[in-house]
Backbone:
């Protein structure tokens, strides 16, 4: 969805020249015989109509340089990537692990002798870990 377009029908160079290692966001338009320096990043839907030096971060219509290190949200992080971006799945697993460990500590405090039994996998047919159905011996389902 990116446009690298010419702006004239006259001979000669008509299209942009992009340096190496450039990120161009979805929907961006880079128009005319301009040059974009290596290592630059062009934001999604930006319209770039003039040259930009190496390492530029360009956003907006018309494209203008922003400082990627401002921390004010005005910088451009391609595809939402950040250096220390938190992983929501890892955070959820960590929270569940902490909760399980907390519950196990509380169980150990209430029943220290049951710790060994809780750490063992359930035996086949022991009923531990399974919900009991009326057919398995409970009278609550029979009327």
Residues:
């Amino acid at each position: 969805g990116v446009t690298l377009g010419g702006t004239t029908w006259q001979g000669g160079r008509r299209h942009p020249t992009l340096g190496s290692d450039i990120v161009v966001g979805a929907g961006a338009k880079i128009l005319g015989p301009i040059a974009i320096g290596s290592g630059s990043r062009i934001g999604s839907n930006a319209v770039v109509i003039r040259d930009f030096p190496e390492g530029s971060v360009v956003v907006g219509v018309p494209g203008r340089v922003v400082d990627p290190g401002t921390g004010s949200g005005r910088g451009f992080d391609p595809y939402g990537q950040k250096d220390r971006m938190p992983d929501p799945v890892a955070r959820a697993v960590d929270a569940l692990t902490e909760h399980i460990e907390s519950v196990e500590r509380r169980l150990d405090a209430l029943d220290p002798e049951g710790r060994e039994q809780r750490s063992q996998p359930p035996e086949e047919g022991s009923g531990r870990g399974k919900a009991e159905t009326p057919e398995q011996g409970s009278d609550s389902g029979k009327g």
The chain is about 20% helix and 15% strand.
